[in-house]
From TrEMBL:
Positions contributing to Mg(2+) binding: S229, T249
Protein function: GTPase that associates with the 50S ribosomal subunit and may have a role during protein synthesis or ribosome biogenesis.
Organism this protein belongs to: Muribacter muris
Hflx-type G domain mapped to chain residues: 216-383
Record's protein name: GTPase HflX
């Protein structure tokens, strides 16, 4: 049942955590409904942070409890009246509801309260629209917004018929404004899908080129505001925008990363995840998220100082499963350990000696070297041992082996050729085979020499 209105569930602006930043900042009423006996207060706090990230002034927070959502207003008749009263009292311009409302529930609550109603999905889409900077990011956000809007068009009062009878071929009712809006949105969605498909093909081509060159891809994933962009900047010396706010960065960024015993790798910084990530966003950002699903290694960045750490890990794992990336090898990166007492940078290993987690502080650069070591260990494949007979004219190839420090033994033949044994990572050996096809011939010559 709906809880009775009380001062316990109405908080003023001073308690909302953020003051207005400009005279044009919209005042908002936040609404959250507890649908179980256990009150998920962490979810409400996160929603308040989302609202602050959108740049609104939180005038009041209204909460209630129900076993099931109300079919007309989602929150119930009594709570809806309370919300309408709060809108009038605080002169609010928008109602933010921490749930996914149906088009009818959104329309009914908006008509009752006399102001705009934005549900959780709409709020996240608005934040994404503010953060998008690249051409692809803007296309993806616009596509998600149109998909969300297409089911929420309402009939306008008056001027319904766009064509009037009176001339040959124009008699009778014409196309209504609602039908026109739906048709235009459908056409716009198709146009955006076609443009994104071109971007997707370009990404796929770039991905295939990296795969042919055996360049491993490392994708940063994690809950929003876990410190992914800060870590990305520390690893690659990039200048990606990083801030203590939800969805600070939206557009994907790729940078080269040099790793010992592995060589060149590509590090990808992706959008942060969140609980109840809207399906429209997962669909719209499919091409971007594919960088994650087809990566060679995932760095799951975790805010070690967050009280909701375990819940955030579960939320990220759920999204990874939704985008078919849950089988990609991963390395846990517990960030922000400088906010914890008694925790020093270190690496944990499994029973087979493979790294499973790295504890570090990206902002203060503590443990970055440990992370690079762990990444190299995760990407390093089984070693390949080869015996080669290098002629005197292959000094460039010998120099490559010497730089990689992979020569186990060598001896000179009476003709001045080098008979060497090397042990190198399998990925690096495959790269050398493509760069120097004559290595296969040198391996055969070594067999003849030893015979």
């Amino acid at each position: 049942m709906i809880s009775q209105p009380s001062t316990d569930n109405v908080f003023g602006l001073a308690q909302s955590g953020k003051a207005p930043t400009s005279a044009q900042t919209e005042r908002a009423i936040l609404v959250h409904l507890y649908l179980s006996q256990v009150k998920d207060t962490e979810n409400l706090l996160e929603f308040q942070t989302l609202a602050q990230s959108a740049g609104v002034e939180i005038a009041a927070v209204l909460t209630g409890s129900r076993q099931t959502p109300h079919i007309k207003y989602y929150v119930g008749q009594g709570k809806a009246q309370e919300i309408a009263q709060a809108v009038e009292t605080f002169n609010a311009a928008v109602i933010l509801v921490n749930h996914a409302l149906s088009p009818a529930q959104n329309r009914n609550l908006s008509q009752l309260c006399g102001c705009r109603v934005v549900d959780r999905t709409g709020l996240i889409l608005d934040i994404f629209a503010q953060r998008a900077r690249s051409h692809e990011g803007k296309l993806q956000v616009e596509l998600a917004q149109l998909r969300h809007l297409s089911s929420r068009l309402v009939r306008r009062l008056g001027h319904q018929d766009q064509q009037k009878g009176g001339a040959v071929g124009l008699r009778g009712p014409g196309e209504t404004q609602l039908e026109t809006d739906k048709r235009l949105i459908k056409l716009k969605i198709l146009q955006l899908q076609n443009r994104l498909e071109k971007v997707h093909k370009q990404r796929s081509q770039n991905r295939k080129t990296r795969q042919k060159a055996d360049i491993p891809t490392i994708s940063l994933v994690g809950y929003t505001n876990a410190g992914k962009s800060t870590l990305f900047n520390r690893l690659t010396n990039a200048n990606v925008y990083a801030a203590d706010q939800l969805f600070a960065t939206l557009d994907p960024t790729l940078r080269r990363l040099s790793l010992q015993d592995v060589g060149t790798a590509i590090l990808a910084d992706t959008v942060g995840f969140i609980r109840f990530l809207p399906h429209d966003l997962v669909s719209a950002f499919k091409s971007t998220l594919q960088e994650t699903s087809e990566a060679d290694l995932l760095l799951h960045v975790i805010d070690a100082a967050d009280s909701r750490r375990d819940e955030n890990i579960a939320a990220v794992n759920q999204v990874l499963e939704n985008i078919q990336a849950h089988d990609v090898p991963s390395l846990l990166v517990f960030n922000k350990i400088d906010r914890l007492e008694g925790v020093a940078p270190h690496i944990t290993y499994d029973d087979e000696g493979s790294p499973t987690a790295v504890y570090l502080a990206a902002e203060t650069e503590q443990g970055i070297d440990l992370l690079l070591h762990a990444i190299s260990a995760k990407l390093k494949n089984e070693l390949t041992r080869q015996t080669l007979l290098l002629p005197v004219t292959s000094g460039r190839i010998y120099a490559k082996f010497y730089q990689q420090q992979c020569i186990l033994s060598e001896q000179l033949t009476p003709f001045g050729d080098r008979l060497i044994d090397i042990e190198v990572d399998h990925i690096q050996w495959q790269k050398w085979l493509k760069q120097y096809p004559e290595l296969n011939e040198f391996a055969e010559l070594a067999k003849w020499e030893q015979a």
